Amino acid sequence: MKVAFIGLGTMGIPMALNILNAGFELTVHNRSRDKEEIPAKAGALRAGSPMEAAAGAEIIITCVSDTPDVEAIILGENGIIHGSSNGSIVVDMSTISPSATRKIAERLGKKGVKMLDAPVSGGSEGAQKGTLSIMVGGGTEDLEIVDPVLKAMGKTITHVGSVGAGQLTKAINQIIVGGTYWSVAEGVILGIKAGLDMDKVLQAVGSGAASSWPLINRSGNMIQNSYPLGFKVKLHRKDLNIALEIARELGVTLPLAAYIEQIETGLIARGHEDEDLSSVARSIREQSGLD
Fold first, then answer.
1. Domain residues of the chain, as ranges?
2. Could you please report the per-residue DSSP string of 152-182?
3. Which of 63, 152, 194, 198 has the fewest beta carbons under 10 Å from its own?
4. Catalytic amino acids?
């Protein structure tokens, strides 16, 4: 099976490598062409444009930052739509607007090209280990075709509905993730201010109902006040903006998500946009007199 992968960022490179390691024939493309070198050294072919990457591919995967990027890669002048063939399947693993996803799928469908939206959760660690959670919207038969490729990248693959449902599910995921990071930060800073042995505190609460992925994997960042990249603050704020837009359309109130979006806006204004999401703890540390 011939696969194309477009978008070789923090997540995309390890995802592409896992596809190669699973034995698939892979062609890659990235706007910054130097990013193609790592998968190329592992055996991937390089393409000069999304259109070129899509030519001859049965499955075309995109994994980029935002809605305009996906629209340009798929529908632009040198986009996938101009190189893909009838019966091929585009799998967008970015996190973008559900309504834009449906419009893109409609355009592709007129050319006989199917589309799945399959955003992921699990961070850079999950991408490297091939243990991502993948939320898929689209046709059941299309998912059956793509499933072996998705299994090279993810541990949990869930079909959540028609095209666009994957993005809606990811929006819910990001709302919950934001709230969890914030609550972990509040608990950690309280413990530090109280002078507790935080290793013991984390051992205690991490073994009970308070356990969570951010607690286990990111509380150390908050204690040390150091936030090496896992998932960028600016990308999570972008995701929350998508969730808040959906909420406005549906008449749903999301007060905590709106508050965290503002916290992230402040972090970005202070130059922390490329830090890991756990840097939301900076706000509590500063307000609590730790920094």
1. 2-163, 168-287
2. TTEEEEEEEESTTHHHHHHHHHHHHHHHHHH
3. 194
4. 170
